[in-house]
């Protein structure tokens, strides 16, 4: 039996599970696979251009999908939003930056507006801006994000955003996390890292292998890759990644990294090109302890729903059983 | 109908709610009130001596309670553990440091051993040491703790610790949080900050008022108070507190604080003595957005259970209803 929430109603889904728009990882094939399985997929162009966006919409084909932008970066390339809207996405998600200039345009194009926030103040502002859906992203999330953790933030965001539905983002990798998010009043979950290790994701095979092998004790929120790549990410955003040789070398020594940026970028880029993730970054969330395989997106969705149902059944059992002495 | 878990079974409770041993805040009156309401109370001596411990056990009277120590500090004053064990606590919790030298002694005294951990590696080690109960403490928790957030950490700790029951600690302030923790497989929750603002807590009235007024966006994990007070907290532990003038002045400038430590300590201590929490610290977790009153501990327990039941009822409803178009 499905979980019917304000999210599944609003987007016409069977399951309250949304693929996070992981930059360059959530492409059309993955988004369509999540959609076909009853969830909803957002492709993630991050810093990529209209050609990437066009291609991934083509790959998704007839399955309804959406797209998620890095707001401050897209604002420098607004034609990318135009290209996306021309493809009639069911929803557009904006994260990291001032969404105000874009909300009306997205709504006028017939798409739902999803605004991702990292603070209670952000949730209040997103509601004021007219978000159709708000994503409360906790610090445990992979990739860019901020400092607040989900356990206290999510219910507070639900209260502040009501009646706007809120999705939980950050370390939701199995159905226990989905059930917990729903118990806190969320309308669903935005899931990234678990789908990075999906068969259909565009992530490098070596990066997927690191996520499967990874340890949630060994991630870090850091600016070192943004510094090396010369990306002007505004405060307070940092990226959560697997700790590797590069983060170990430079995290906490950001000023020194700035001084040798060009040489380090060359070294970094060469490593990325050859799939060497001891140097290149793997953005991933703290939920990786629970990721033990690379699986098709449909299997991930089905498993997550089944686990959430099992978690609910267990909760019900807690209230009726008497434990033996 | 109560939630029966491995915790309620092990400690003989009606509700899976444990009062965190907040230093100097969780005294005998609060611990006994939580116990009388069907939960379980741990008094928190932190850096306080046997006289404090004796007095708070006396105040708790006939209600079964427990006690929680800062392990590395108690190790310098082992007579405090002896004084506690002489009072026949139902459980002793150890946090922050090497528990190994004390586990056997506590068990031999007939008390359950609760070990609080902040990493998956810590959970594995706590199980190995023979913990009866493991507390998975997320970074969102008030007071001392570490970096991992609860949403990914809790289910991973539950898996690693099984069959040892795991409690969730960090930003569990209402029944939605309790229900979420149970959905993730926890056997209950360790609750601090919500009980700081209980009528019976030993917290200063001005500090309680700040917690009620507080904003979860405005807390920080910091070492500045430990530095000022000359407390040798080992890495990686920091204390989560409400941002105030003192944390704003010194957080990020720890080296400079060391240089003027004595003068700052005098100023800090004077502020603490007069209840001025613009300078003195209020340790509190990120869940404070959901704390809107000072209430008797029994009311807090009852509310939390009722809210958890409501959260469960809502989850069940999600699976059966069809939302209107």
Mean pLDDT of chain A: 97
Which superfamily, in CATH terms, is the homologous superfamily of the largest domain in chain A? Aldolase class I
CATH architecture of the largest domain in chain A: Alpha-Beta Barrel
As an assembly, this protein is homodimer
The first-level CATH class name of the largest domain in chain A:
Alpha Beta
Structural class estimated from helices and strands of chain A: alpha/beta
Specify the number of helices of chain A: 16
Strand order of the largest sheet of chain A: 1-2-3-4-5-6-8-9
Distance between the termini of chain A: 35 Å
Number of domains of chain A: 2
Poorly predicted spans of chain A: none
Summarize, please.
The structure is a homodimer. With about 325 residues, chain A is α/β, with parallel strands linked by helices.
3D structure, described in words:
The structure is a homodimer of 325-residue chains. Chain A is an alpha/beta fold and 325 residues long. Chain A has 2 domains: 6-203 and 295-320, Alpha-Beta Barrel (TIM Barrel); 205-273, no CATH class. The first copy, chain A, is built from 16 helices and 11 strands. In chain A, helix 7 (120-129) runs parallel beside helix 8 (150-161). The model of chain A has no long low-confidence stretch (mean pLDDT 97). Chains A and B meet through helix 1, helix 8, helix 9 and helix 16 of A and helix 1, helix 8, helix 9 and helix 16 of B.
